Amino acid sequence: MPRPARLAAAFAAAWIGPLLTHLVKLDFLLPVIVLALLMAVQRGVAGVLDRLVLALGQAFGALCVAGLLFSVWPWGLHPVPIAGVALSVLVALVAVTRPAWRTIYRPGARDLLAGAAALGVAGAAAVPFALRDLGGRIGIIAAGEDMARHIVLTDIIGQAGGYAFLHRDVADRFLSADVASGISNYPQGTYLTYAVLDRFVRSSDRNTDAITQASHVLWLYVATFAFLGLAVLWAVRRVAGPGATPLRLAPVLAVAAAWVYCADPVAVFVRGYPNQLMGMALAAILTGLVVRPLTHRGAQGITVALLVVGVSFSYHLFLPYAGVAALVWALRTGAWRHPGVVAAGVVAAPFTLITPILNLNAATAEHLGTAGTALPVDRPLTALLVLLALMATTARRGLRSPAFLRGLMALGAALTVALGLAVVQLVTVGSTVYYFEKTLHLAIIVALVLLGGLVRLVPRRTVPALACAVPLLLVIAATGGQWHTRPGATGLRLLAGIDRGSPAGGSDAVYLARQHPRSGEAVTVDLMSTPYRNWLGTLYASSLTRNYRYGHAWYAFLNPANPPKTLDDLDAIVAQSPVPVRFYVANAKASMLVLDPARPARESDKPGGDPVQFGAAGALTNIEAAEYLAARYPGKVQVIHGKPPERV
């Protein structure tokens, strides 16, 4: 068959194929085909793992840009047109690059080694989720509380068929006025990806019910952490260089994998930050390419541009680092003179600015000093990691290597971002908080990638080589928290089932959502048990019922960390509610109200106190308060005696 005819047939198949898979409910095959073709057209790399990681990073950045088109064209997030466009573009790229198909997917020993380490990280992350029901899975990440909003934002994008900031009318149906702007403008590349992949998995052109939708989001979240592990371990292998033998590479990969799963990266995972995990993964890939660029400058320029766009659309707090890292590569290698590199940068620049412009109000010193629920970074372990990264780049005349010098500059850029924010916070709020921990996470990822340089220091014999990793692995496994006040690493405690998060709150949320799957006409409030369980049950139930618009008001009210509440406070929030309030009660001892906020005198604070008795002696219990309000606001307040799930 002549080449023009083959090309025409390929373009036809790019559209006929998605139509057929959609008819037989096999759309989940299409992302795999797209990824395989994107791997085939890579330039400047040979290994299959290189192709896989680069294809994933490029696909995310391209999807972030394409999402702008999806948001305005008439088909929304329908799998057929999305796959048709993607496959058509790839057919054109295949026609131009003419890949050698026989050698593309053939892995080498180092690919297998890094891939096995990445699978280990992914498996360890998936096991705790696989062993639990939906309530238990929510419980793993519930304490971070932000995941409730991530679920909502993914749902909004799915309902709207595109970015929430381009569909404010849809977002306003889900969000109250006081949070609509912040959530609608939040970086949305990760959530768009979730919404699109959900469509392909289900072979559907619309969202499913809210509970099933949330379950899919959680599994995609696990996949995001797996992608982080893959990105870091690939970058470690790339920084190690082509001369690293599997024997010398193995202990370095083992240390990096343990660090990802056991230490601070997994602490990000258990707090429920999908966008940050994606930003960390892209930063890892970018760092690997800065240290050892692709041999094809045009491909390197396009890849770096897409990664920077992806960082902007996922976690723009990391954008200063991404921009500096890209400049380090372009200036130190002379790539800025290459027309293709310049063109890629010029095209990418407007897309990179979208998220920062939308979030200008969130970039003030006041917002950057906001407290949050991120776990504090392990200071001593992080100091050790930075020291190891410095050894990896400087030992044995490492600074004579342009690659390691660029790596050292990248680490300096990451640390400068963290220290700069620390100065701002110390000046404005008097201490380092939340976002400083986030920038330290970035520095940790960059330092982990640079560990690849340690292969030069690993002995060439088997026993000494493996023995080098044992002390570090023991240190990582033994650490636990900011100052090691508890035994055991975060990841190991999660895997062993010691740290289960808040499964009771997650179970309550699922229970309440199943009782009232369409609760837009009323807000459901959990008062059945302990304060934290009630708070998280109410918060996540609002996400699982697409009722966050009204549930958000109870988010701050029920938070046990906030000032104590009196009966008058409870009365006021009920009176102000624009929709009826449905109180779920169960435990006759459960209480939350106090008589004097200045002197709470909580029953649970007394020796041997029951945690469920969070209120003060003499104040109404939750059942009494709910019944009082039902009598005071007939028709607006409903009291339901529920049965909280026992399996938590």
UniProtKB/TrEMBL annotation:
Transmembrane segments: 12-40, 52-73, 79-100, 218-237, 249-270, 277-295, 301-329, 341-360, 380-399, 411-434, 440-458, 465-483
Keywords, sorted A to Z: Membrane, Transmembrane, Transmembrane helix
Transferase is among the record's keywords: no
This protein's name: Uncharacterized protein
Organism: Virgisporangium aliadipatigenens
Species classification: Bacteria, Bacillati, Actinomycetota, Actinomycetes, Micromonosporales
